[in-house]
Design a protein that fits this description.
about 190 residues, Arc Repressor Mutant, subunit A, 9 helices, about 0% strand, globular
Length: about 190
């Protein structure tokens, strides 16, 4: 039998952060910053022009991560949660932007009618808000399927990583992906 490998540095830092070590938190965030920025650019860069720049998106999502309970299993889990926070930050920003454009000081409920009323310049806004609304509705039908789609699309995780994180088999992830994509396609049609 071989020796058990020690967890990677970031995973060790995340576990120390869970124990209350704020220096470990700072080191983990610093170690992951460049990777998160690259992921934000690749996933959300097309929404950056008139909306939120990837650097701002990463910084805001990290602020939200730091303010929340640090319950991360490993580096992959941290990246997945960070990407979901980025989605949340982007949706909040786009909703606020939509509200400002309409001259309202009170937040509006985003509806399909609101999304459909966008100008061509706001196609990215419409796409993100419609996808967000679809995922919320899918979560009401099947939370795990919605989670699989979020982890795949927003966190960029592969099928194996999703299976490990959700403690299900890869074939279950495959079924959830097929069902979820079909459900979202129907919703967005």
């Amino acid at each position: 039998m071989g020796a058990v490998e020690s967890p990677p540095l970031v995973t060790q830092l995340l576990h120390a952060w869970q124990q209350g070590d704020l220096q470990a938190r700072d080191q983990a965030v610093e170690a992951m910053y460049a990777e998160l920025l690259a992921l934000a650019r690749s996933r959300y860069g097309r929404h950056g022009g008139g909306t939120m720049q990837p650097v701002v998106l990463v910084n805001e999502s990290l602020l939200r991560l730091i303010a929340s309970s640090p319950d991360y299993r490993d580096r992959g889990h941290f990246v997945a949660v960070a990407m979901l926070k980025m989605r949340s930050v982007l949706v909040d920003y786009l909703r606020a932007r939509s509200t400002r454009k309409r001259g309202s000081e009170h937040p509006e409920q985003v509806t399909l009618a609101l999304v459909a009323d966008q100008t061509p310049v706001d196609d990215a806004l419409a796409e993100v808000l419609t996808l967000h609304q679809g995922l919320d509705r899918l979560a009401a039908v099947d939370r795990r399927v919605a989670s699989v789609l979020e982890l795949s699309y927003f966190a960029g995780m592969n099928r194996q990583e999703i299976a490990v994180l959700l403690d299900v088999s890869v074939p279950t992830v495959d079924r959830d992906l097929r069902f979820g994509r079909a459900w979202l396609n129907e919703f967005m049609a």
